């Protein structure tokens, strides 16, 4: 399957490309020479300088390489892989064993971005020790740089245990997809009298040691107030423009998802149409006999 032709096959010898991430691999032309790995203190300093930053989901080598080169600061290997990779209807069924290979792929491929791994449903809620054991797997076996878990004040014991054990933790409050059945479906959180609980949750995870907090489907004014109150960075998804950072699922913002998208998603490309057209053209070429052509065929 190699695209390189050897002298023995009748062509001029071509140098094999170096593996991505090795010292001999080519540096992308767009990458700044002084660019360094993003760390938790990098994100904290950006908040203090009032600089916005970005997070995208990533589940594989090529998306990780592309987003990393584009300058995305954090790559989230989310439990959203459940319904964007594995074909589940929600994030609930995905397991640690299913997510670990995806985390490894992204960690191997991203040279600069901070790689954040989601703790899936049922892998951390039971106790702080369960949370720590799961997080250790993602850090040791997946080579993640930190983990994300859902929940506010009720997750303080888990967050403290992870942080005390050397695991950077990003919290997730507001609408928490793993609790969709408890919350009554995909509903905005923090409206009216419920705003106080959302604010209290944000303060609780900060004091427990979280280095950042995702706020999902929270009214913009509430998210802005929380952002101005917290010392740690806030990451919005459906939480308005007042947060320190934004996160989206990459298949949504690239137009790969053909289903109904949430209001907070902006589509930046139409990859589904591009891929569909390319696949149809390939089918037509093969069925019509025009591929492979002479230029794609080795000679004896």
From TrEMBL:
Cofactor remark from the record: Binds 1 Mg(2+) ion per subunit.
Record's InterPro entries? Answer: Pantoate_hydroxy_MeTrfase, Pyrv/PenolPyrv_kinase-like_dom, Pyrv_kinase-like_dom_sf
Q: What Pfam families does its record include?
A: Pantoate_transf (PF02548)
The positions annotated for binding Mg(2+) are 79, 118, 150
EC number(s) per entry? 2.1.2.11
Q: Which GO terms describe its cellular component?
A: cytoplasm
Q: Where is the stretch described as Disordered?
A: 1-42
Q: Where does 3-methyl-2-oxobutanoate bind?
A: 79-80, 118, 148
Please give the chief subcellular localization of this protein: cytoplasm
What processes in GO biological process is this protein linked to?
A: methylation; pantothenate biosynthetic process
Q: What segments bear the compositional bias annotation Low complexity?
A: 7-33
Q: What does the record give as the reaction this protein catalyses? A: (6R)-5,10-methylene-5,6,7,8-tetrahydrofolate + 3-methyl-2-oxobutanoate + H2O = 2-dehydropantoate + (6S)-5,6,7,8-tetrahydrofolate
Note the subunit structure: Homodecamer; pentamer of dimers.
Q: What is the role of the protein in this entry?
A: Catalyzes the reversible reaction in which hydroxymethyl group from 5,10-methylenetetrahydrofolate is transferred onto alpha-ketoisovalerate to form ketopantoate.
The UniProt family comment states: Belongs to the PanB family.
What name does UniProt use for this protein? Answer: 3-methyl-2-oxobutanoate hydroxymethyltransferase
Q: What organism does the UniProt record list as the source? A: Mumia zhuanghuii
């Amino acid at each position: 399957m190699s695209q390189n032709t050897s002298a023995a096959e009748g062509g001029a010898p071509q140098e094999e490309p170096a593996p991505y991430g090795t010292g001999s691999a080519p540096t992308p032309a767009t990458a700044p020479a002084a660019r360094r790995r993003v760390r938790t203190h990098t994100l904290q300093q950006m908040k203090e300088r009032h600089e916005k930053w970005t997070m995208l989901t990533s589940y594989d080598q090529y998306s990780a390489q592309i987003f990393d080169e584009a300058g995305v600061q954090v790559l989230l290997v989310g439990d959203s892989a459940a319904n964007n990779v594995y074909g589940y209807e929600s994030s609930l069924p995905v397991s640690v064993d299913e997510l670990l290979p995806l985390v490894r792929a992204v960690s191997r491929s991203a040279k600069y971005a901070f790689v954040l791994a989601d703790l899936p449903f049922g892998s951390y809620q039971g106790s702080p020790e369960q949370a720590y054991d799961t997080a250790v797997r993602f850090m040791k076996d997946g080579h993640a740089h930190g983990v994300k878990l859902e929940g506010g004040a009720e997750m303080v014991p888990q967050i403290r245990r992870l942080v005390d054990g050397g695991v950077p933790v990003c919290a997730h409050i507001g609408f928490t997809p793993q609790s969709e059945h408890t919350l009554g479906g995909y509903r905005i959180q923090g409206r009216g009298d419920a705003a106080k609980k959302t604010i209290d949750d944000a303060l609780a995870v900060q004091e427990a040691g979280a280095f950042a907090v995702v706020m999902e489907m929270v009214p913009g004014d509430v998210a802005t107030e929380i952002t101005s109150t917290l010392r740690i960075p806030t990451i919005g998804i459906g939480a308005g423009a007042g947060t320190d950072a934004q996160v989206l699922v990459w298949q949504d913002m690239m137009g790969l998802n053909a289903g109904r998208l949430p209001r907070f998603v902006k589509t930046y490309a139409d990859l589904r149409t591009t891929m569909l057209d390319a696949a149809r053209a390939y089918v037509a070429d093969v069925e019509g006999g025009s591929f492979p052509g002479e230029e794609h065929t080795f000679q004896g």
